[in-house]
Amino acid sequence: MELKKLTDTFAVSPQVHVADLPALREMGIRAIICNRPDGEGADQPTFTEIEQAAGQFGIEAHYLPVETGKVSDQDAERFRGYLETLPRPLLAYCRSGMRSATLWALASAPAMPLVEILAAGKRAGVDLSGLTRRIGSPRASADDQHDVVIIGAGAAGVATASSLLARAPDLDIAIIDPADVHYYQPGWTMVGAGVFHPETTARPMGGVLPRNVRWIKAAVAAFEPAANAVILEGCRVVTYRQLVVCPGLKLDWNAIDGLAQTLGRNGVTSNYRYDLAPYTWERVQQLKGGRALFTQPPMPIKCAGAPQKAMYLSCDHWRRSSRLDQIEVEFFNAGAALFGVADYVPALMKYVESYGIDLNFGMNLTAVDGEAKQATFARALPGGGSETFTTGFDMLHVVPPQKAPDFIRVSPLADAAGWVDVDPGSLRHKAYENVYALGDVSSTSNAKTAAAARKQAPVVAHNVLAALGVKRGEASYDGYGSCPLTVERGKIVLAEFLYGGKVAPTFPTWLIDGKHPSRLAWLMKERILPPLYWKGMLKGREWFVQPQVTD
After folding, report:
1. For residue range 348-383, what is the model confidence (pLDDT) as tens digits?
2. How far apart are CA 201 and CA 46, in angstroms?
3. Which residue range is the domain that position 291 belongs to?
4. Does 282 share its domain with 233?
5. What does the pLDDT look like over 271-289, one tens digit per residue?
6. Taken in order 64, 68, 70, 76, is the CA torsion positive or negative?
7. Which of 34, 235, 303, 315 is catalytic?
8. Is 235 a catalytic residue?
9. Mapping DSSP to helix (H, G, I), strand (E, B) and coil, where does residue 291 land?
10. Which of 339, 354, 260 is nearest to 296 (CA)?
11. CATH number where 102 lies
């Protein structure tokens, strides 16, 4: 029989029969709970039959019958008692396993966050999203109803809110985000190279949000798209007419064994965190010789060029200070190519060769021993299976694996990979017509960059207003993304492309030829893009990104 494991020691299942008990004993099950009332089905054994047969195999059996759709708080309390006292592994069963899973969720709620309960259900193949309102007994308030609710106050969220207000100044918008600080994350590469000061990339959230937007400073726990509702931590409910989802992605530092314990120490750093980018520059300045490793995890990741940007700028500093010959530089890329758009690879390879960088493809960082200064990588073998490789380092720049936030991955909005499942053109959800997503969390195949969010925000703003009857026609996103590859201090290879890797330069080639390093592109990255971000994109000014609309 098939068990659905909600934890390592607890599972649910459909009806258990006497013939199943030997197999359950083989699986190690030590106790079972029957949540199905006797006589519910014509082919259903009574609990007494199961209890007597279970005793012969040394399995405890307990009876907590619950009618379908009538799981009470008292039932959950009794079930919690069983969870706390019965031996493990423990199995609960009913007709399908759903009542047992519901009891487990309600019984676990006092000690387990809602998002973890939903995640456990999703892993087991049990949809527990219908319990989101019940857990904690929330009450919806008229003050929590809005025309548009935006999840996330990062680049995508603030830009979308500003683009909406530029078109409809009286629109009722709420942004949900628990963060106190808004970061200009594209600047962290420059911080890691000593070009920007870290504080120039951060501003108080309250000073960045549009004045006419209501800021709900809270974390999202779950979604109820069929009810047009968002459930916050603490089980507060916010309802909407249109929902825009853009909370960014999750940096999974714990996916690499030992990494979290050594970040910011022992020469282990990353430009993907505000507080660590200055440490990158510190290590680059202090390294006189030895081995410097730079890593890139499997795609998709935020700004796929950032891992090698850090490497090129570090090499440039070492060469300018006459130390590059004493430093062995290696790039470990989990992918199969230096850059996803082949047109830009020749220019990058010239710098790889000039700096003497050793390229290693198909190598994924799996463990770090900071004290021993050892990094372990895994590589897939052609015939199947994998092998590991451990090497030493004096400096290690790590880019962690990345995935959608937990509350997104367990929600009804997610696709099989965990990203918000949207149409690549309209950015509208494929199943829920009043839900949109943009930025890093969407399922679109474009590069996850701030430039992509800047192009997507006006598209979403127009389509949301069209759905509300304020505008007409549909805007479409073409997959535009941009990656200013900082190949040396003072020069950039400006990669710009659409869906499918089609090159799409903004400027004529006589001004900036993206396939070759450019001084002007560097000046744009250093001097123009930061104010364009703070004073343009976040203010709803859509220079160069006004959407194309079709009737």
Report:
1. 999 999 999 999 999 999 999 999 999 999 999 988
2. 66
3. 253-401
4. no
5. 999 999 999 999 999 999 9
6. positive
7. 303
8. no
9. strand
10. 339
11. 3.90.190.10
